[in-house]
# Entry
Amino acid sequence: MRNNAYPAITLSIVLVLVLLAACGPAAPTAAPTKAPAPAATVPSAPAAPTAAAKAEPAKPAPPTAAPLPKIKRGGILVRADIGDATSWDPAFSVNSPEVGKSPALEALLKWELVDEKSGKHEAQPDLAESFEMTDPKTLVIKLRKGVKFHDGSELNAEGTKWHLDRTRTNPKSLGKGFLESITSIDVVDPYTLRLNLKGPSATIFVNLTKSAAGTGSTGTLLISKAAFDKLGEEAMVNKPIGTGPFMMDEWRRDDRTIYKKFDQYWKKGEDGQPLPYLDRIDVRVVRDRAVALIEVKSGTVHVFENMDEKDIAGVKSNPDLTFISLPWAAQRWALGFNPEKSPFGTNLKLRQAAQYAIDRESMAKTLGFGFAIADYYNLWIPAYPGWDESNPKYDFNLDKAKTLLKEAGAGDTVNVGLSFETPGAGQRYAELVQAMWTKAGINATLTGIDRAAVKQAVKAGQFEAHTFSMSASPDPDGWSRMYTCDGSANWSNYCNPEMDKCMAEGRSTYDVKQRHETYKRCLKILYDDAKVFGLYMTPGNVVMRKEVKNLKTSQHLVDLREIWLDK
# Structure
């Protein structure tokens, strides 16, 4: 029996060296190092399709810090989040990291950081006791025994099959795309499932983890079938019944979510006693990042993620705080044109002019405060398959932008509306884009849209050009949510059937070289269309009080299950 997957099927996210240069102890202006070869990030073709190979367990990294103090139990931890869920039902939540970070919900697998230096992540068991690819189209999962949901019902194969089938087949499900590689699920015995796949699926493992929340899906976070049958679907929207160490006690929409300790949690802590260590976790909605950071400094909030880059230097020098950089979980800033609205949506040369007019290097330096890099490749990072510096890109070229503007029939100037999300950093980089475009003759009128309404407004086409902030994806297939016609996070309404086919091809093979060449072609399609494009990217980050101990991360998500307070 094994606790990992098919040989080399484990998807690894190799730390982007250029981001390390931006985040580490080196001076912020140091030149980025050469990107690692993309072949290290994707699985190779299976050597023996009919044999299930055993993976060596990851060796723990040598200790790099003083031993932790003796664990203290009890207390209330407060985490701030800039957003709130619209629904807590995992199958009907999309692009909702709030649901993915919930300590009440767990997944079959976890996307575990196994090497902090390289940023390597691997799929490992969580609610699954083990998992095994018996051939390229068959994944067998054995569940842990004795795991209880918050309603007292037991985790078993029948209930797990029900939830996965509900997510992948229910017409209302927003996460079905992440399980589309599954054709059917068989219950082998009360604690064993067999997932039958359409073909090789390079992303099935990460899609069975919480980290899929960053790619737009939470549908594989399990809820109780017994509770669903008893309480109904609407009850899951407001209070999901999961297996986590904390159960949801109260949800005050757009204010806070209160979690209380679950006394029957399946896992034990380092002190040999059942988890969790804490009595309660309060997650407060604080939409202004500056306000959230003030509260961390004052001690009214313990943990906050993804502060503005301008505040990082001050946090790193504060003796009361701990700063964690997540270079493998970069936040991407992007821009898209509405394909249905003139003049830019229907005029390629105007879109190309807009791209050449943007000085991404200057933008990264100005807005990233030494912690960002330019993004020429549509949210790709050097560790992804498809990343290749020979790929075409829109370098800053003001003269070319002006020439294209005239060739497009716009004369010396053209007008466009540019919207951005507020509050937050969106206005700062929209203003910088506006200033750069002005030099090329593109006059942008800025409009802020409140965060609570921005997704609906943009999806409804109420924009000409719009800026985006996208959280990290463990694999380039995660960008299917943005670059395919029916993608769950396709806020710019970009649609090209050739791109849909290309992304589908990229996820349907384990072969390293084939994935690399496929995604190069996908990037070329995006380049040629020039309708959506990256601007710059910054590493993810976490700031917390010194008394917070044992916080873990999964790609970009904070894991609060084993956290405790030294006070």
